[in-house]
Hints:
About 11% of the residues have low confidence. The radius of gyration is 21 Å and the shape is elongated. It has two domains: 173 residues, Response regulator (Rossmann fold), CATH 3.40.50; 100 residues, KaiA/RbsU domain (Methyltransferase, Methionine Synthase (B12-binding Domains), Chain A, domain 1), CATH 1.10.1240.30. The chain has ten helices and five strands. The chain has a five-stranded parallel β-sheet with strand order 2-1-3-4-5, sandwiched between helices. The chain has 305 residues and is of the alpha/beta class.
Amino acid sequence: MHPQLTLCAFVSSESLPQSLSWFLSSERFIVHTADSESEFFVFLEEHRQQLDCLILQDDGSLPATINHLYEQGILLPVVIFLKESEAISTFVATNRQSDKENITNGAFSENLHYLFHSAEVQVGISQLPEIANLIGQAIARFLYLSPFCSLSNQSTTVDWSTELTQRNFLMHQQRRLSEKLQERLGYLGVYYKRNPQLFLRHLPSVEKDKFLKNLKSEYCQILLKYFSEDPGLNQKIDCLVDKAFFADISVSKIVEIHMELIDEFSKQLKLEGRNESILLDYRLTLIDIIAHLGEMYRRSIPREF
């Protein structure tokens, strides 16, 4: 049996939990609804490693809830039902229309007014019938979210150790969700679940530069540790390949990043008066990563029978 997606809903509306259960009543989801804030946090603490997505409602107390999530180092895909007011409803309707236009134009509009993190999906109650697709959208955005992403301005000060825990938890959750989607849907299913809005070629220039900078940084860390006995090296390679796959990065771009780093290493070795021939060994790193990425693309292409 394919794995289900585990959801936790914490909403203030009395009718919303029943409606969520109705629209999510399928073999695809396991839905837990928390009746109180204390129950919500207890459930999170007990199931934080298994949760796939949160469903929250902005009723005025949401900032305090989010601050607590920050303090616990918890970062998950999330769908947020906004306050029911004419202004918000208008914003949501406009935002939805803008998203449709952006998809048509091959562009991606980043959510600049986020409450939890920049990959959240904000909706109105009128969009409740679309909740299954919105959850998929939230997970797709979350898989792209950089570990160095900017978080919402929280009133609670988070120390460095907590922030580091949060970043590590984010990367762990991204990998776990990616693996779950692959196991549930197969590579072909993951391919069709990718969000074209998040493809590198569709991102605004600022976001594109930021993504490539982070990807290059991760690749650099892999190069530096490739011939070491780092037990987490394979996971780092898989994580980088997953991000490249979901962003539709070409193999030639990976080669370009590799050559840029090797050139930088070569210049540094020359400055230190050291032999740069050792850099030839790092061709194995490039072959390794290209093999992983190429296999993902190969297995995701529909076959003709």
